[in-house]
UniProtKB/TrEMBL annotation:
Keywords: Membrane, Transmembrane, Transmembrane helix. Pfam families: DUF2905. The chain crosses the membrane at residues 7-25, 45-68. It comes from Brevibacillus brevis (strain 47 / JCM 6285 / NBRC 100599). The keyword Transmembrane applies. InterPro entries: DUF2905. This is DUF2905 domain-containing protein.
Amino acid sequence: MNPVAKLLIIGGAALIVIGLLWQVGGRFLPLGRLPGDIVVEKENVKFYFPIVTCIVISIVLSLGMYLFRLFK
């Protein structure tokens, strides 16, 4: 099989799995609403920056990539 086609199939499957986990996991894991996320509400403006959520996602992805390289 062509390497590019194989990469696209694996990437598409990974996106589907991530999307399903995001839908199901959103009910149980409050990503985006963790303690430490910055929310500033004024009269007509709401500023939201999920800093802790970004850090958690970064750690999980880094660990996943490390394990992927380790067992490759």
